[in-house]
């Protein structure tokens, strides 16, 4: 009888504790799934931010191009400054992109160093272009080659007018025609690239 009482007692304990044991397993599994879901959400958010950084870097490249065009149209130093600021900002963003891709082990054809080198090469060409534009058009301190050419042409016109020589006048007309053609080629080339 005592043996049957223990069995009954064990059966009772088993039935009353079984849901508690099941609940314990449920909570462990549930907490693991919650943690895993939380980690996936964090990675998803990071990948969304990475995608946003990539889109913003594309926009920054377009802004660099815009600053180049604005400089060519206006020959204003503020566009040189804007170009340099934009280049520094895009390099910082590209570093963030590279670091995140490395941290998450994302494979791609993106080469951070190669991209930064391409930006540096673009800036070097832009700087050379600004020097050329200033040589042609002048800057705040110096006259440009166009100004010198205009002065030379005016001097030649005075000589031709005073000399009243038909051959010299025809040469002047040819020279002015060439200057007009040169201006038509040069001005649109630098202002609408």
Please characterize this protein's 3D structure.
- The protein has 193 residues and is mainly α.
- It folds into two domains: 2-129; 143-193.
- The protein has five helices and no strands.
- It has helices spanning 2-74, 77-103, 112-137, 145-163, 166-191.
- Helix 1 packs antiparallel against helix 2 and helix 4 (145-163) packs antiparallel against helix 5 (166-191).
- The radius of gyration is 38 Å and the shape is rod-shaped.
Give short descriptive properties of this protein.
mainly alpha, 89% helix, 2 domains, 5 helices, 193 residues, single chain
Give the topology.
Blueprint: H1 2-74, H2 77-103, H3 112-137, H4 145-163, H5 166-191
Helix pairs in contact: 1-2, 2-3, 4-5
In short:
The chain is mainly α. The chain folds into two domains: 2-129; 143-193. It has helices at residues 2-74, 77-103, 112-137, 145-163, 166-191.
Roughly what percent helix? Answer: over 70%
What sort of overall outline do the alpha carbons produce when their principal axes are compared?
A: rod-shaped
| Unreliable stretches | none
- Give a quick account of the main beta sheet: strands, pairing sense, barrel closure: none
Tell me the domain tally.
2
Instruction: Provide the succession of SSEs.
Output: HHHHH
DSSP helical segment count: 5
What is the CA-based Rg, rounded? Answer: 38 Å
- Kindly report the average pLDDT value: 83
Fraction in beta strands: under 5%
Please identify the structural class as seen in this structure: mainly alpha
The beta-strand count equals 0
- Calculate the terminal CA-CA distance, rounded to whole Å: 104 Å
């Amino acid at each position: 009888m005592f043996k049957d009482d223990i069995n009954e007692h064990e059966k009772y304990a088993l039935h009353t504790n079984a849901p508690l044991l099941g609940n314990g397993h449920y909570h462990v599994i549930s907490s693991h799934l919650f943690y895993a879901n939380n980690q996936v959400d964090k990675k998803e958010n990071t990948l969304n931010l990475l995608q946003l950084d990539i889109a913003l870097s594309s926009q920054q490249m377009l802004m660099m191009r815009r600053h180049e065009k604005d400089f060519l149209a206006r020959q204003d130093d503020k566009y040189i400054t804007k170009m340099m600021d934009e280049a520094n900002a895009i390099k910082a963003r590209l570093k963030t992109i590279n670091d995140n891709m490395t941290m998450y082990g994302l494979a791609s054809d993106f080469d951070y160093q190669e991209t930064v080198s391409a930006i540096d090469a673009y800036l070097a060409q832009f700087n050379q272009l600004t020097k050329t534009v200033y040589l042609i058009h002048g800057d705040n301190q110096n006259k440009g080659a166009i100004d010198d050419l205009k002065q030379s042409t005016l001097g030649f016109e005075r000589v031709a007018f005073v000399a009243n020589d038909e051959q010299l006048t025809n040469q002047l007309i040819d020279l002015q025609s060439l200057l007009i053609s040169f201006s038509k080629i040069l001005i649109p080339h630098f202002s609408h690239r």
